[in-house]
Specification:
Helices cover 43% and strands 18% of the residues. The protein is an alpha+beta fold and 664 residues long.
Length: 664
């Protein structure tokens, strides 16, 4: 080979590279130029496409060009191809710059010993020039891929724009994303709030009918270490992932050989992970991570919109439910007013509306209800409200006050008795349970019930059966129970005065009624309702309430709650004698809203009653305090001093907030 031949070839190759054509256009001209100086039949140009794949250009002796793509793991890629089966001579040179290898070029011939050292030197010089062409081509391919991926992200955004649940369009998402990042399976997982579990949120590329596959999975310590914000690539599942790990079992279940994972952030936290999975090794590399992050960000945006939409639907449903409850409360109020002849459910404060909403919600069920709150807060009114809204509204409403009857009489009143059951039982008598058949039985002051009666009531609630005193026949208890108490039943349970099992039977649905001092917005509405109600029963009803009296009503703390307010209005109506109610007609003195009554001196029986009246609750509280001090906090002696039972004393201690910690 003459030096001029080599120079001409190199000059021709330089001109080809300078024109920067595409490789499939360059290689036939490169082969033609080399044939001027080197005898060969086929030229092969190998370009490393990405870390895991190559593109092979082959120019045959007739000038025809064949372009094929190969995975590095494929047999034959970068080595002998089927068309080289008859090659007897081969000349090879790598293409690259410094330590970077971009590909290779080699020539083949079916004859032996065709190539010389001069040919080798020439091809290596050509390879140096062709490396520029490969770099240009890689830049061109990278830019094309970048534009394709931008188009893919734009199509993905449009795909998800109208979706209310990303799981419903996840297959379409995968199809669009596959154009920018080929994969076989796409999986979105969500993490548990404690970061100790995960579940598959959405998946496409595999059909899974096992319901347990979609349930949360507890992570091991090793697997939990992978719940972080950093992306990672698994190039070979068999070599990198232990088969016994959760990831190993899941990936092998679907024949996955390589994976790319990026986190899916939502707000300031992490929703889960997005996995691109392939059934071939080395499918993904670091150049794919940025695109995968963008896909994950768009999915996170869709998830955020989905959560906002779900929150809006929940809010709309809550508003609709609230409106339905308010309508139900209004209907029940009108029905209760019509049946009783006067308005009983009065008040529009937020606290009172909340009580009525809970009552309306539970009314249509058969659930046992426990009403708690201070004395006089309207527990029986709410109990009747629940009865009116239930399926038993056409049945009786039967009330029994557990504090008003001695233990033996309470049992007889409740269960009834047979003739001769005890001295004086000359006739059989049905009890309140029988009387309430088909309706509601209301236990008022249930905290005062004796332990022996508590045990029998518990059996009624559990077995729905009872026996009359002195009887042997089991009778069916077709009743719904509503109970009320002003006592702290938890404290009573700790003292052993109230059965814990009965409490949990009664307190299935507990409604706490606020004291009147916590709902001042209702005071005047209640006062006007009582004024109208009481006015119909007296000869000369009051014509109204003047401003000073209104201010006094609003300033008073009402320790006796609604009951005390009604009594005050009734007294004032009588004193007003057909005129306006004035402040001197009210038996109350303005004072701040306090949780307990004042502890002033107790008026003695011989002292005259003040013109403005007295506060009986304040007097009773002061007497309880004095008795406890005199008895040195011995409850039995204090109760005896007051003529009360221990249970009644405890009831008043709790009523007036005289906890032992305050009395010690």
């Amino acid at each position: 080979m003459a030096p001029t031949d080599s120079t001409a070839v190199l000059a021709a190759v330089a001109r080809l590279v300078a024109d920067a054509p595409k490789l499939n256009e360059l290689v036939p001209h490169l082969a033609a130029a080399l044939r001027q100086a080197v005898p060969f039949e086929r030229l092969h140009l190998l370009r490393l496409d990405r870390a895991e794949s190559v593109v092979l250009y082959v120019v045959r002796a007739d000038g025809e060009v064949e372009v094929t793509g190969h995975r590095i793991a494929d047999s034959g890629s970068g080595g002998q191809t089927p068309i080289d089966a008859d090659a007897r001579s081969r000349l090879v040179s790598t293409i690259g710059r410094g330590s970077s290898v971009h590909g290779a070029i080699w020539l083949t011939s079916s004859d032996e010993n065709v190539f010389t050292a001069a040919h080798q030197d020439l091809v290596e010089c050509v390879a140096d020039q062709v490396s520029l062409a490969l770099q240009h081509d890689m830049l061109r391919s990278t830019e094309i891929l970048r534009r394709e991926r931008l188009d893919t992200l734009d199509r993905l955004l449009h795909t998800m724009a109208e979706a209310l649940d990303i799981r419903h369009i996840f297959t379409e998402v995968s199809d669009v994303v596959r154009e920018g990042l080929p994969h076989d399976i796409l999986v979105l997982t969500s993490w548990g709030e404690d970061s100790r579990s995960f579940r598959v949120y959405a998946m496409t590329g595999e059909q899974v009918d096992d319901p347990s596959f979609w349930t949360p999975t507890i992570l091991s310590e090793d697997d939990r270490g992978l719940l972080h914000r950093d992306p990672y690539i698994v190039r070979d599942v068999e070599a990198e992932i232990p088969p016994g790990s959760i990831r190993g079992r899941l990936l092998r279940r679907f024949g996955v050989r390589s994976a790319l994972r990026v986190p899916t952030s939502l707000g300031t936290g992490v929703f889960g992970s997005l996995f691109f999975l392939a059934r071939e090794t080395d499918r993904f590399n670091e150049a794919d991570i940025d695109f995968a992050r963008h896909v994950s960000d768009l999915l996170a945006l869709a998830l955020s919109h989905q959560r906002l939409s779900e929150a809006a639907r929940r809010d709309a449903a809550a508003r609709e439910t609230a409106a339905q409850l308010e309508a139900q409360v209004a209907t029940l109020t009108r029905e209760l007013e019509a049946r009783t002849g006067h308005r009983r459910v009065v008040g529009h404060s937020a606290q009172w509306r909340d009580v009525l909403a809970h009552a309306a919600r539970v009314a249509h069920t058969e659930t046992t209800v426990l009403l708690t709150g201070e004395s006089g807060t309207g527990k029986e009114v709410v109990a009747r409200f629940i009865h009116q809204g239930s399926r038993r509204k056409h049945g009786p409403f039967v009330a029994i006050n557990c504090a008003a009857l001695p233990d033996q009489l309470l049992e007889s009143e409740l269960f009834g008795h047979e003739r001769g059951a005890f001295t004086g039982a000359v006739n059989a008598k049905p009890g309140r349970i029988e009387q309430a058949t088909g309706g509601v039985l209301f236990f008022d002051e249930v905290g005062e019930m004796a332990p022996t009666v508590q045990a029998k009531v518990l059996r009624v609630l559990e077995e729905r059966e009872f026996q009359r005193l002195g009887g042997t026949k089991a009778m069916r208890a077709d009743i719904r129970v509503v109970a009320a108490t002003n006592r702290d039943l938890h404290a009573a349970m700790r003292r052993g005065e109230f059965r814990e099992d009965l409490y949990y039977r009664l307190g299935v649905f507990e409604i706490a009624l606020p004291p009147l001092r916590h709902r001042p917005d209702d005071i005047m509405e209640l006062a006007n309702a009582f004024l109208e109600e009481i006015g119909a029963t007296v000869g000369r009803p009051a014509t109204g309430i003047d401003d000073d009296a209104r201010a006094q009503l609003l300033a008073y703390g009402w320790p006796g709650n609604v009951r005390e307010l009604r009594n005050a209005i009734e007294r004032a109506v009588i004193l007003a004698d057909g005129g306006h109610i004035r402040s001197e007609h009210l038996p109350v003195a303005p004072r701040p809203f306090l949780g307990v009554a004042p502890t002033g001196d107790v008026p003695v029986a011989s002292a005259p009653i003040p013109p403005g009246g007295v506060n009986l609750d304040a007097i009773e509280r002061a007497l309880v305090v004095k008795a406890l001090e005199q008895a040195r906090h011995n409850k039995t002696r204090a109760a005896k001093l007051l003529g009360l039972t221990r249970a009644q004393l405890y009831s008043r201690i709790e009523k007036y907030g005289l906890a032992e910690t305050e009395m010690s």
